[in-house]
Design a protein that fits this description.
The structure is a homodimer of 555-residue chains.
Chain A: E1 4-12, E2 14-15, E3 21-28, E4 33-37, E5 54-57, H1 60-63, E6 69-73, H2 79-82, H3 85-92, E7 96-98, H4 100-112, E8 120-122, E9 129-132, E10 135-141, E11 150-156, E12 159-163, H5 181-188, E13 194-198, H6 214-223, E14 229-232, H7 238-250, E15 254-258, H8 260-271, H9 284-287, E16 295-299, H10 309-315, E17 328-331, H11 340-352, E18 356-358, H12 373-383, E19 387-391, E20 393-394, H13 395-407, E21 411-412, E22 419-422, E23 429-433, E24 438-442, E25 445-448, H14 453-463, E26 465-472, E27 483-487, H15 499-513, H16 516-520, H17 522-541, E28 546-553
Parallel strand pairs in A: 2-20, 4-6, 6-7, 7-8, 12-13, 13-19, 14-16, 14-17, 15-16, 17-18, 19-21, 26-28
Antiparallel strand pairs in A: 1-3, 1-22, 3-4, 5-24, 9-10, 10-11, 11-12, 22-23, 24-25, 26-27
Chain lengths: 555, 555
């Protein structure tokens, strides 16, 4: 085996939370056979990516080595793990392996993008394994906040790796497999080179709570509610949906599911057999005939998304349902950093309707899907790997996780996106840095985050936009004065005259001053007109707009 | 006194946290003499107000009644209470009253805007009072997170009102006056019609902690620190600055203040005598000669502001200081909702430098400046007013605060911005709704939030911008083809041809198809060209840009 090596290369998800994409390779340096674990998305925001629809990891490195890519494995069906699979399938072109529920979701995505669903292959859990090139890969069940989450057992000729995927240690997860410590110990017993491990909750110092603790709290809450009840959580948290629906049923309420994502998830969970005994639901069209005190809506939009059901209900009637004084709205969810303002907006709108809102601030109505610090320590001990490679975290999480590994004398390596680590020897070795980044799905087009497209939009948002037009005749003489059209700028400034008039005077002065040489030179002329606008506006309104100069020459 | 009434009218701060502005009036309906309590700002964000510099309450109602405005009282020097005083002074033109520290800050603002600082009058605390028209107003000291915060005792011929301003009940506030329960009881003992009361922390159910509890925790933290220490908090929290500096001094560290706002606040506090015995500080220029383990920087930027000292230090060298492996960075502050991403960005940058970051998640290194629920209850009981009017809160806070008042059998009224409440009788009565809103300071210009200026900028940020130019001759014939300039849009789309080429073909087709009538009609022609761009782009890139059409006619 001399010369062969195992490499690990995160292209997304390490140094950020979101858009997971982890490459593993085995073979001679530069000729490794490759597999990809997860291919997810992250979500845009107005501050850094206005107008963008989705954000993908930049997979240029992998796409250039497509011939060496043997397979894509998806650990679970969260968007940050599976969201880009269909968008990138053509560029990667490798078979996709996932367990039934995840595969069901992945296939829907493939179909939406016009790809054949057969490219996604359903596999069974460990001890079944897939041989792809030199790799043998098995899906080891692990508890998380979505059904059939799996760690991957990745066997190479040079040793076994374990990639946890997202996980928590939950012995009573309500839906899906409980954490099976014995199974994990037996898998790890033959020796594990590297544990590549979720880092999300490294800063939560208390032991994690089981999904099963949430139900009784919600039942208690519902027993005191006299009006209609509406609850929201992540649509993919099928266990929570079940917990909520069962609590509603026990309280004598009919269950209505609202929101496309919610119905799709329940459908996938039922189709694949992971969800059994879900309380029967009532179509929203029939809910009108049921007294509101006997209704419980379970709706999408726990993160304050403007178009989701929760936001619609906060604003008014939605599918005939309307929240009123004395109703209860429950956020059975955590607000992801960055979404606070959207969630607070909804809470205030509900407050205006007289609705009582209960959120997770008490810690009773939601539990995290990720392992807290003591559970991460437990995982290190169960697997007892030669080295710990923290993933799924921002820099601060990865760094703290490395420190945690080191407290027990284990080696850790801080590898952010683009860091290629050689795992072959007795200690991890950084061997290369690969260019990585973000790709934006912008409307129907993929653009690079650094292409300048979004940068220009941000500039227009900050500074407004001015169009300058000038027509020149065959002799390079101005035909009339230049004119100005403004967008996103105030109508008047310091002088109280119309801003466009003030700017047009400046432009006319530029043209009057300009020599023949300038008038013949498009670049020079444009530059002078642009500068006149920017300085004139700065003086008048204290702002320098973005400028488009159009010089039309009759020739 | 028949026909006279007391009115309360919030123009900002009720139904939101920020830009406080509360009007009180006394007199015959429609002829009341008016006073204004506080005139603050709120801060813009990319999502709702890109490019905006500051947000003010819309004071049109009050400006139209300027002749009846007798005075402006500022309770304390936080930006959301004093920030707009200079910007609006010309439109309001009434004398400004404040205690020494607040007046010092207000005068600096007046001078920056070119107004005479003498318009701000320094007054002493209760029992001194100011008579303005029918009002007699006194500043009653109250603890908060800035020196010399005051409640207002507002006496009218029809009874006494108490306006808490921002407050907490703190018996050991480190800097400034401790809460004096006896004094408050004596002021309230003659009977209070209405308590207009801070609502910020109504949802915090535990008793508030004193500022004095923070010091020992910080001392403990510093005793374990081996590298340089850097701490950030709100510059205006002078007590915290003192706590931090004293802890640093005890740990044998020299103190360096970094950030303009921080130095300005300490300067104002020293000038006005509210800050005594502040540990001596070292200018940053001299810090280089001190071993880093003997240094403590106290810096601005606790909210992740990109240009503040904390962000600069996270990015690299700042005034010769540089944070390194083994240094400690302390956030002695709470992150305001909406600022999470900015703060997390800094924490990760610090993590990349190997700096250990401690934030407030343990609850040990920061205490709030606002009264929690039990303290609000205590305040209701101490003042024992006829009615409680919650202010300084979002709708959800005001609503909950009304409920709290009602649990003890007191009347409460939920009055958001623009709600005029008559406080004269035995119960509060809503008598009018006044138009309110927001005014943006945009560069150097004030624009209305609904003027469409910012809306257009948001649209350009989401959709990009296209300029279309067409030149027509004297016969209304097109001179050449129309052309397109794009900004913030991808270069190619579905067809893989340059987007501008594809769009120009569409435009040329429009012009070729257009009859004489359309070509003569600017509006119609513009509309058709705009539609062609929007539909063409939707088809090509899945996005409809904002469009500026310029038709130049040679005539």
């Amino acid at each position: 085996m001399s010369g062969e090596r195992i490499i690990y290369l995160p292209l997304g998800g390490a140094g950020e939370i979101g858009m997971n994409a982890y490459v593993y390779g085995y073979g001679k340096a530069g000729q490794e056979e490759l597999i990809l674990v997860d291919i997810g998305v992250t979500f845009p925001d107005m501050e850094t990516s206005p107008g963008v629809d989705l954000i993908f990891p930049d997979i240029a490195w992998l796409a250039e080595r497509k011939d060496r890519l043997k397979a894509i494995f998806i650990t679970h069906a969260h968007e940050d793990h599976v969201g880009a699979v269909a968008h990138y399938w053509e560029r990667l072109g490798a078979p996709v392996y996932a367990r039934a529920f995840t595969a069901n979701i992945a296939r829907r995505k493939m179909e939406e993008m016009g790809h054949k669903p057969e490219y996604v292959q359903t596999v069974s859990a460990w001890p079944e394994t897939q041989r792809v090139g030199s790799f043998e890969v098995g899906f080891l069940p692990i508890s998380h906040s979505i059904p059939e989450s799996s760690a991957l057992v990745i066997d190479t000729p040079a040793g076994r790796l374990m990639h946890t995927g997202d996980f928590k240690i939950d012995l009573t997860p309500v839906v899906g497999e409980a954490f099976d410590r014995g199974l994990w110990e037996s898998v790890a017993s033959s020796g594990v080179k590297a544990l590549v491990c979720d880092s999300t909750n490294i800063f939560s110092s208390h032991e994690g709570r089981s999904e099963a603790t949430v139900g009784p709290e919600i039942e208690r809450l519902l027993s005191e509610s006299k009006g209609m009840v509406c609850a929201t959580t992540f649509a993919s948290n099928v266990a929570r949906l079940k917990t909520l629906a069962e609590a509603g049923q026990k309280a004598g309420r009919s269950i209505v599911l609202l929101g496309r994502a919610m119905r799709r998830m329940v459908e996938a969970a039922v189709e694949t057999g992971v969800l059994k005994d879900f309380p029967s639901t009532v179509p929203v069209e029939e809910a009108g005939s049921i007294p509101r005190e006997n209704l419980m809506l379970i709706v999408t939009g726990s993160q304050g998304e403007r178009r989701a059901a929760s936001a619609q209900l906060a604003r008014g009637k939605h599918h005939g349902m309307e929240l009123k004084e004395g109703d209860l709205f429950l956020f059975s969810s955590k607000t992801i950093p960055g979404n606070e303002k959207g969630v607070i907006r909804i809470i205030n709108q509900l407050s205006e309707r007289g609705v009582d809102v209960v959120d997770d601030s008490s810690g009773r109505y939601h539990v995290s899907g990720h392992a807290n610090r003591p559970d991460l320590e437990a995982m290190h001990d169960i697997v007892n790997p030669q080295m710990v490679v923290p993933m799924h975290g921002e820099h601060r999480h990865l760094r703290e996780h490395v420190k945690l590994a080191q407290t027990k004398g284990r080696q850790g390596v801080l590898a952010v996106n683009g860091t290629m680590v050689d795992l072959t020897g007795n200690e991890p070795k950084v061997v290369d840095y690969v260019e990585t980044g973000r790709t934006y799905l912008d409307g129907s087009v993929q653009v690079g985050a650094l292409d300048g497209v979004v940068r220009d939009r941000i500039r227009m948002a900050l500074n407004g936009h001015a169009t300058v037009t000038l027509v020149l005749d065959e002799e390079d003489e101005a035909l009339g004065d230049p004119w100005v059209d403004l967008m996103g700028l105030p109508e008047t400034g310091r002088s109280r005259q119309p801003l466009s008039d003030v700017l047009e005077e400046e432009l006319a002065a530029v043209v009057a001053r300009a020599g023949k040489k300038t008038l013949k030179d498009d670049d020079k002329l444009e530059e002078e007109l642009r500068r006149a606008i920017r300085n004139g506006a700065q003086n008048e309104i204290g702002k320098k707009p973005e400028v488009t100069v159009v010089v039309s020459r009759l020739s």
